[in-house]
Amino acid sequence: MPRLLIVKTGDAFPEVVEAHGDFEALFQQVLAAAGFDAAVFDARHEPLPALEEIDGLYITGSHAMVSDAEPWSEALKPWLVEARERNTAMLGVCYGHQLMAAAFGGVSDYHPAGRESGTHEVTLTEAGRADALLGQLPERFPAQLTHAQAVLEAPEDAVVLARNAHDAHQALRYGPRQWSVQFHPEFTPEVMRAYLARQVAALRDQGQDPEALLAGVGATPEAGSLLARVAEAVAGEPSRRD
């Protein structure tokens, strides 16, 4: 069984936590359904764990902003660089996506077009279609999204794997076993609707139609498969413990 660690970088809204579980619980639910266990490390309150005890990392979303450069978030950057140097498998999600990109030399900040929320289609690039992880998905697939910040400049050595009309960096690869995605593979339609319900005023202020976005929420099985696919890839490799 691979030693998987979920790096918790924030909390979901209280009503989401009560009804569906916090960010890390959503990850654990998906992984458990595929037969995998994952420990949790709260990066805001706990010391950085030893990387030699970890086979795969997941970095969650957060309501924090990478550009605020909070001390706990900044402390994760060199740790993630070390994890990349050790070729530890990684999947960053939303905040985790933006944090990984910033740690590896890119720029993450507020998106000039504002917030992207709801179920939206994502398209694989040519590199994405050939990627070991995302290449198993259809060329176009729906994904759950809620973010105000984004990767504005990808690291020079990163490969863009997916994009859409709003965001040129929906998925990136930084090495053979290191990926990040702007969308939320752990979100169910119910969680996505709860987030949209919280954002009605902000979305209207941005000129969007929250009712149409709510009506457009749907299942995202292809995007949702990525969490288990990473664990399955790690489980299928020779032991890295020696």
Automatic annotation (TrEMBL):
Q: Which Pfam families match?
A: GATase
Q: Where is the Glutamine amidotransferase domain?
A: 16-196
Alphabetically ordered keywords of this record? Glutamine amidotransferase
Family matches, as PROSITE patterns: GATASE_TYPE_1 (PS51273)
- Which Gene3D superfamilies has this protein been placed in? 3.40.50.880
- Record's keyword annotation contains Plastid: no
Q: What is this protein called?
A: Glutamine amidotransferase
